[in-house]
């Protein structure tokens, strides 16, 4: 109610003025009103504010009771939202509740180090992240459309077709010589309405699906479960939580947990951006001293406190915030990394990243339930992007050119959002890369789609489910503003010189049915996606995991085409000829490459990271 909100605001004012007692009185009155009218989210806000005041007055146990009640309400409200997108965005708005809860538990841990508060803080961190992803992964193994009314499924199909048609019409309008602004505005409005209807339809399918109803909400793992299910004696978990005043790192081994207080989020962000720039910037990346300094500075902040525990163990890293974009492989614990490759983190450790530790638990369950593919490798590489490509033989007319341009107009916009030139350039080394990889495998267990056949159709026709490894050597677009516009670029022209839809969008990827041990996106910036707070990267990785991939290898920046090609050839050789697990194979390839003068800068080898299963 309005009165409750006014009382809560008065409490905020008194708290800011330093009159904590008065603030508490106003919060308590607001809480009574909110409870009387059943305003649950108002109640959660009151309890959070009361917890802040009690912590400021050093009454930590009472603050803990309030924040726990507040979080219980938040989690309950979250489960009542049927749409995964809306659940994610609601969850993003309450991340500050979790941040406060974690910080309070870690303050309590300081005063009572034997009471298990640090364990509880780790479990709260696990509860605060990748929840929608966990639920999506659980749902991915159930056919949630079974038993849903045929009318809803018919409506779903019709909306998809209308969306396609509207998009096509919009592109034709915008690419005409003098587009009519009123018509463009009208079609944009129609597209927004259709998208809204489509999301409502998806929500209805979920809320009326017997299969969906019987899915129990997956619970994030507890510390003993993480130790038993996720780790072994050679593997440790590094879980980060970045906060406004302080950040935390939990180091979990199969038998213990240690926690460390790190600097505030802003300090870590500055060091991480400087490091990333020094590795990727064309002028800086070839200056070993500059890279080494930036690497050492960030490592001091986020790794040094735990250095003694790392040994040579495998590192499972659950990043937070800016650390999702950080190439951990290129970090180093000594200033001398520039002179000596053996100081880079990857030289001592296998490194795998995860959206949350619980994600791995559910990926394993899903994978165990899938039918194992009988064939080894499917490659889609070197597609045809433009009509002036030498592979387009037929007569290219003006009309065809215009049609291709209009087909690709929406794409060029998403490529702008991801800093990519348009039309995309052919990647000459991808073919060589693909040919070399194919040589490791007998003809009968592989398939290749080059040129025109590296198409959206061949990616979506269902045959990819028969392969253990899927390799896409082409451009990826990661659109941070609108993750649903992210995707992979396939051939945009067919063998008769006609323009075709060559964009494998995130929604297409979600609908693939795979059972792949590994999906490799050997393209640019595929690891980037929108960072919805509490979800980590909502990028292509998540789409492929939903589709049934156990691991995804992605890159964090546009990598040199030839450098990638050399790295990929080594990676597959280690995996297919030396039988190394993907994570071990990637590390071995990175170590081999960095020892060569031409490729020694982390720019060439540190961009690639593996997400998912380490075994």
Task: List key phrases describing it.
615 residues; Serine Threonine Protein Phosphatase 5, Tetratricopeptide repeat; 11-stranded mixed beta sheet
Would you write up a description of this structure?
The protein is α/β, with parallel strands linked by helices. The chain has 4 domains: 2-131, Tetratricopeptide repeat domain (Serine Threonine Protein Phosphatase 5, Tetratricopeptide repeat, Alpha Horseshoe), CATH 1.25.40.10; 150-212; 223-349; 370-612, Rossmann fold (3-Layer(aba) Sandwich). The protein is 52% helix and 13% strand. The chain is built from 26 helices and 16 strands. Strands 3-2-1-4-5-16-15-12-8-6-7 form an 11-stranded mixed sheet, with helices on both faces. A 3-stranded antiparallel sheet has the order 9-10-11. It has a two-stranded antiparallel ribbon with strand order 13-14. α5 (84-93) packs antiparallel against α8 (131-140). The radius of gyration is 26 Å and the shape is globular. The N and C termini lie far apart (53 Å). Residues 412-417 have low confidence and may be disordered.
